[in-house]
Amino acid sequence: MSMCLPTFVFKLVKSVRIPQAFQEFGSWSSSSSKYRKLVKLKKESVNRLTLANTPRLTPDSTLILLIYRHGLRVAEVASLRWEQIDWNGGTLYVKRVKKGTPSTHPLYSEEIRSLRKLQRDYPASPYVFQSSRHGPLAFDTVGGIIERAGQLAGLPFRVHAHMLRHGTGYPKANRGTDTRTIQSYLGHKNIQHTVRYTELASVRFQGLWDD
To answer: CA 60 to CA 146: how far, in whole Å?
Structure first.
């Protein structure tokens, strides 16, 4: 799981015709070498990933849902503990890695239902997503779950966990969410890591001219 995003993208470019493959399921950007090539998944593709695991409320589908909804990195979802969830307030306390800024996110009904079922089915560990020994999942295991879901969903490219995180940032920018809010939600310490999303959002130019 230590493979960096650019290396992954370059391998993806070599093996798949990205503009065609991502036209339906996702998109990519190579607008500036300064911000590297970024790959994100469309919401429809994320839905296909979660639905690829049947029944719907499985540990794998819940893991994918939380990564996408909260922009979690592999290390953050692997170490997620039940104590980070406030059931009464309906919130999730997100601890960020890479010296990122922690924050409290609202949990929505689908997430709460999935997490409640997970807690009933696997009560023996303090970790939300646990190994067979009731410890945290290995990073490679998380990556394997997501890659396997992509295969089951029939996506025409290899799915990487960080695609889900990028899929969190871009829709917020396209909806006109301000950069500081996105920065706080994703836990970026440096706002330059957030600017990559807003720079590619077309909505920032809307309203510059009267129609």
So the answer is: 8
- In this structure, are residues 135 and 125 in contact, taking their beta carbons and an 8 Å threshold? yes
**pTM surpassing 0.90?**
no
* Euclidean distance between CA atoms 200 and 170, whole angstroms: 8
- The runs of H, that is alpha helices, within 37-154 are 43-51, 59-70, 74-78, 109-121, 139-152
List C-alpha distances in Å: 22 to 12, 40, 143: 11, 9, 20
Query: Cβ(113)–Cβ(66) under 8 Å?
Result: no
In the chain, the amino acid numbered 137 is L
Residue 129 has pLDDT above 80, yes or no: yes
Which residues, listed in sequence order, are joined to residue 92 by a DSSP beta bridge?
85, 105
Q: Which residues are catalytic?
A: 73, 98, 162, 165, 188, 197
